Amino acid sequence: MLTYEGKKSRTLSYSMEWTVFIAAIFYGAPRYVLSKPNLIASGFTKEEWPILHKVLFEWHDKILVAIACLLLIYFCMRLTRPALRYQFSRFRTAIFGGVFFGAQTYACMSVYQFGAFWPFFIIGVVSTNDAFAFFCGKAFGKTKLITLSPNKTMEGFVGGAFMTFIFLFLTMGAVF
Predict the structure, then answer these.
(1) What are the residue ranges spanned by the domains of the chain?
(2) Predicted structure pTM score
């Protein structure tokens, strides 16, 4: 329960944030990721999985309205006078955060499901280069690379480039 005496218990706000996030995923999943042709092509036919099809395509809107109503009732029942400002700010954070990260999640899922691996590949290449340049620079770095950034070293640059080439070699089969 959320209290306001010095140390705040965040169970209420965390459960609201996760509920909104899951509801946002559930909102987008049938429309963008699990469209009927994709779901049937993956082996989840209506004949074999009738409950799944009813939940995702027939009862979808009713379930979302029920989740929203229950979340709002739960929030209103847990309001306390001294902590109203804090509770409303956490509720606002839960709504915006859940919807924002939920939308990002099902956007990434739909991009990957429809065969567009390139956004993930580019993020992986850049992350690999940055991470290994940092680690190699910390471990072996002695020669300064550029005066513009004083912590960049030649050893970090070479280590990052080498590990990026290894990453590219290992993942080329998934891209081409």
Answers:
(1) 11-115, 119-175
(2) 0.51
